[in-house]
Design a protein that fits this description.
Elements: H1 4-19, E1 56-59, H2 68-73, E2 80-83, E3 91-97, H3 111-125, E4 131-137, E5 142-150, H4 151-163, H5 179-185, E6 194-199, H6 206-218, E7 220-227, E8 239-244, E9 251-256, H7 258-281, E10 284-290, H8 295-306
Parallel strand pairs: 3-4, 3-6, 6-7, 7-10
Antiparallel strand pairs: 1-2, 4-5, 8-9
Helix pairs in contact: 1-3, 1-4, 3-4, 5-6
Length: about 325
């Protein structure tokens, strides 16, 4: 069981997350919530041959669904909402990495707090009729599965299970595949869902990428990459410095210099570019978040994603 101080810290973090939630709504880009659509299923909030015509654009009010594309055309100087005929509910799954290494963070928060903030923003953005499921995992294990239910009623349990988990309830099943693969295998194949995966995506394997590709063929897949500036930038100074990888526990010694810092950053940028292209090829939209992002920075990148402005590499 977690200590009293850990539970108190988790409760304080959750209150901070809740205070920053804006219910902008979740926009999807397919006609129904089934892989093979039938009559009467939920339809998209985008224009086209969906049967739901655009009624009008209006200035966004709390509780409205933000029209990301219309707002983007104004350079986000105006936040607009589009009014359509009301479609049926959506099922959204959030798969969140909860590996021990996410305690890392040198800026405003740890990577775990950043992941929890994104989780809270996603669930808080959903409409009252939308259903939300949450899966957490670490490098080798599936941790917890919260089956879909009303997003509003899922919000607090999901945040507490992520930030203050009861390890005695972990699934912790022995498997030959990674925790991420196990989580992806738990997604439904008969219902099309909006799926968010929150992770650092460090050392993504070919097998994990194939699992993501399978999910991307069925669902609307969005990968949210979290990280810290120190992963790209070496510390200031000159001379030898020992760096420890919290994921593997291995240490490496680097020579700090202006040239080495530039080389380190260039190698990171090259690897990140390859990762984004790989995720895009898997059918995922991709966005990056950093522990230095404040509420405004997170919303600037996340709100367009939630409201349907999603890009693949």
């Amino acid at each position: 069981m977690n200590s009293k101080s850990e539970r108190s810290e988790a409760a304080e973090t959750i209150q901070t997350i809740l205070s920053g939630i804006v219910p902008v709504g979740l926009t999807i880009a397919w006609p129904t919530n089934k892989v093979e659509p039938g009559s009467g299923d939920r339809r998209t909030r985008i224009m086209g041959d969906t049967g739901f015509d655009l009624a009008k654009l209006k200035e966004w009010d709390p509780g409205d669904r933000v029209d990301g594309k219309a707002s983007a055309k104004t350079g986000w100087r105006e936040t607009l909402a589009a009014l359509y005929e009301e479609p049926r509910d959506l099922t959204v799954w959030t798969i969140a990495d909860n590996s021990p290494a996410l305690i890392f963070g040198t800026q405003n928060m740890t990577e775990r707090t950043l992941a929890a903030t994104l989780l809270g923003r996603i669930l808080g953005a959903a409409s009252r009729d939308d259903r939300a499921g949450v899966i957490t995992y670490d490098e080798q294990h599936l941790q917890q599965i919260l089956p879909p239910k009303s997003a509003s009623s899922q919000l607090l349990p999901a945040l507490y299970s992520y930030l203050d988990p009861d390890e005695s309830s972990f699934i912790n099943n022995e498997s030959s595949v990674s925790g991420l693969q196990q989580a992806l295998l738990r997604l439904p194949l008969t219902e099309r869902c909006l799926v968010f995966v929150i992770s650092t995506f460090h050392n993504l394997t070919a097998e994990e990428l194939q699992s993501l590709t399978t999910v991307g063929h069925v669902h609307d897949l969005v990968c949210l990459i979290i990280g810290d500036v120190r992963e790209r930038e070496l510390p200031e100074g000159f001379g030898l410095r020992e760096l420890k990888d919290l994921r593997t526990g291995r240490s490496t010694t680097v020579w700090l210099s202006k040239r080495r810092r530039a080389q380190w950053a260039a190698e990171f940028d090259s690897e990140r570019k390859r990762l984004r292209h790989s995720l895009g090829d898997a059918g995922a939209a991709v966005e990056e978040f950093n522990t230095s992002d404040g509420d405004e920075g997170i919303d600037l990148k996340l709100v367009p994603v939630l409201t349907g402005v999603r890009y693949q590499e």
